[in-house]
């Protein structure tokens, strides 16, 4: 018996806003939405494809009444694919991200940022040729 990693769920106050932000960051599209929930991904999953092989997980944004209060215990790492890390940080700031300090120190090769609701994520080294 095996399970698949199919979705990463993010609690948030405004699922539409966060979905739009992460769609712009990752070049994903909205694949499902209902009241208080938006799911985005790079593909539209089917049960058959998921059973056949491990596929990239989708992101689901679920509306909750409370705001974020502490540092995330789980976070996303993103790597720019067609520009420098510095250029990607500039682009993400323009989309509504902020830089943040979670105690990472100054000797690092990544940038810690937060999405518009304060969820931390890291911009890693570039994968550009």
Overview of the structural elements:
With 129 residues, the chain is an alpha/beta fold. It has two domains: 7-63, Signal recognition particle alu RNA binding heterodimer, srp9/1, CATH 3.30.720; 76-123, 2,3-Dihydroxybiphenyl 1,2-Dioxygenase, domain 1. Helix content is 22%, strand content 28%. It has a four-stranded mixed β-sheet with strand order 1-4-3-2, covered by helices on one side. The termini are far apart. The relative contact order is 0.21.
Quaternary status: single chain
Radius of gyration: 16 Å
Please, how many domains? 2
Determine the structural class based on helices, strands and strand pairing: alpha/beta
Low-confidence stretches: none
Output the CATH class name of the largest domain.
Alpha Beta
Mean pLDDT: 92
Strand order of the largest sheet: 1-4-3-2
Main sheet attributes: strand count, strand direction, barrel closure: 4 strands, mixed
Per the CATH scheme, the topology name of the largest domain is Signal recognition particle alu RNA binding heterodimer, srp9/1
Classify the helix fraction into a percent range. 10-25%
> How do the SSEs run, as a string of H and E?
EHEEHEEHEEE
Number of DSSP strand runs: 8
Termini, distance in Å?
Answer: 40 Å
The percent range for strand residues is 25-35%
Shape: globular
Question: Architecture of the largest domain in CATH?
Answer: 2-Layer Sandwich
Instruction: Note the total helix count.
Output: 3
Salient structural properties:
2,3-Dihydroxybiphenyl 1,2-Dioxygenase, domain 1, 129 residues, 28% strand, single chain, 2 domains, globular, 4-stranded mixed beta sheet, alpha/beta, Signal recognition particle alu RNA binding heterodimer, srp9/1, 3 helices
